[in-house]
Amino acid sequence: MIFQIPWKHAAKHGWDINKDACLFRSWAIHTGRYKAGEKEPDPKTWKANFRCAMNSLPDIEEVKDQSRNKGSSAVRVYRMLPPLTKNQRKERKSKSSRDAKSKAKRKSCGDSSPDTFSDGLSSSTLPDDHSSYTPSCLERVGLTG
Hints:
One of its GO terms (biological process) is positive regulation of DNA-templated transcription. With 145 residues, the chain is α+β, with helices and mostly antiparallel strands.
């Protein structure tokens, strides 16, 4: 299963905390890192923590060639994988540490993502209002325990 998450940059493109950070806020509330009224909203940290959580899941991987990093329709595309065996988890962990080292050496070549992804997803499938992304929505994609 492939799914996409809106990933607009907070400083650009008409970003709105109530529309564009609600999934990240819901994740922060779910994990106990944010309580409304007790702390100032920190969407940058919420987003970073959510990204780290997604990257740490062994059965979810980012589909980088379908993700868009720039513009008002910036999204990250992820794929759910079948559960890994213990040996596969070990192999993937050692590979990810190698990838991180080589990734630091590479430079971004800009936004070359197509308007329509190879699996049929398009920018028109992404709603403008993401306020419906709630903890129950996190459960549907397996991000709750």
